[in-house]
Design a protein that fits this description.
The complex is a heterodimer.
Chain A (H helix, E strand, L loop, with lengths): L1 H53 L5 H46 L7 H36 L3 H51 L1
Chain B lengths: L2 H33 L3 H22 L2 H5 L8 H33 L3 H22 L2 H5 L10
Helix pairs in contact in B: 1-2, 4-5
Classes of the chains: A mainly alpha, B mainly alpha.
Chain lengths: 203, 150
């Protein structure tokens, strides 16, 4: 009896381990995305502060525009972080449903650890690199601001466009990561289905 | 590829690389200044971060580019530089279009605050168009070459 309990718990553990790896990978990627998003939005906040500092046009119209741009950036930061949180919850739910639904029919087939690690590392690298690229693009505009002086709407628009573009690309990277993971799971499922059919034929 | 071409390519890549590191250092230094860091701390942090970035860049550069031997492989840094250039071009074009729209709206007599808001609301549409035109492999920074249009 103890043997059967051990083997049952062993099977459960072997089923739970790849799931934990999967959720660990997803958490890591979404955490990095969240941190990178917060970092870039902070850098853009500093860029907006530099625009205001360089403002030679102390008119109420320009100040209103500055305040509006800051409000829009704040809203974008909030929305993007919320979207990442919702995306993370959705992804975890999606994979939970997919894995628990699948484990009844094909308990042994799981996501390959090496494939998961590769996909996760590629996504982490892409998020880190894209964030660096956008930090450099922001720095380019900060340098332009120092060189050519402040042009009221131009740099405000630059800050907002960089923020929106980064959010879109980050969303695409996260979507691409989830798509690859689900494709990996799908291919494993197909392989398991084929091997199951072969076993049926053999018997 | 001839030796001279490889030398030119290596020079350009390293020049671009250094420019990117300098720009990143400038951005970091500006951000630290605006965050209220003292000058000495600012210089020290920026220097250490730049050193790390230079080492990272050298590690990412293909060995053939550093030793000027074969020179056929395209390293990760090449793709990053390409992506950086493309992203910057996309932002620059969008900014020009947005500034044109802003100027047109101002000429029509729209209030400055509303003008900025309208221009900003139009820009995500233009951005989506730009991102749709960019090759997917450049966005995800993976090696797939299936998307040939640039």
């Amino acid at each position: 009896m103890s043997k059967s309990i051990h083997s049952e718990s062993g099977t459960r553990f072997s089923q739970a381990r790849p799931l934990l790896q999967l959720f660990g990978g997803v958490t890591l990627v979404f955490l990095l995305a969240c941190g990178a998003d917060a970092l870039l939005q902070r850098a853009l906040g500093f860029f907006l502060a530099a625009i205001m500092e360089q403002d030679a046009f102390f008119t109420s119209v320009v100040r209103q525009q500055d305040a509006l741009a800051q409000n829009i950036l704040g809203l974008l930061t909030l929305l993007s972080l919320l979207a990442i949180a919702v995306g993370f919850t959705g992804t975890v739910l999606f994979f939970s449903l997919l894995c628990f639904g699948r484990s009844r029919s094909t308990p042994a087939s799981q996501f390959e650890a090496a494939q998961l690690l590769k996909t996760t590392l590629l996504s982490l690298r892409a998020i880190a690199t894209v964030t660096f690229i956008f930090l450099v693009v922001t720095a380019m505009y900060a340098l332009l601001l120092r060189i050519i002086g402040n042009q009221p709407p131009f740099f405000l628009l630059a800050a907002l466009i960089i923020a929106v573009m980064y959010i879109f690309i980050l969303a695409y990277l996260l979507f691409d990561y989830v798509k690859e993971l689900s494709a990996g799971l799908g291919s494993r499922k197909q392989e398991a289905g084929k091997s199951g059919a072969q076993e049926d034929k053999g018997s | 590829m001839g030796y001279l071409q490889r030398t030119l390519q290596a020079t350009l890549t390293i020049a671009l690389n250094v420019t990117v590191v300098i720009l990143a250092a400038f951005g970091l230094s500006e951000s630290l200044r605006l965050a209220g860091f003292e000058r000495t701390d600012n210089v020290l942090i920026t220097f250490i971060a730049s050193l790390g970035l230079v080492l990272l860049a050298l590690w990412l550069l293909p060995r053939s580019l550093v030793t000027l031997k074969e020179g056929t492989e395209q390293g990760y840094l090449h793709r990053i530089l390409q992506s950086l250039a493309l992203v910057w071009v996309a932002v620059a074009v969008l900014l020009l279009v947005s500034s044109g729209l802003y100027a047109a709206l101002a000429a029509v007599g729209v209030e400055a605050k509303q003008d900025l808001l309208i221009t900003f609301l139009v820009s995500p549409g233009l951005l989506l168009l730009a991102l749709w035109l960019l090759p997917r492999s450049l966005l995800t920074l993976k090696e797939e070459q299936k998307d040939g249009r640039i």
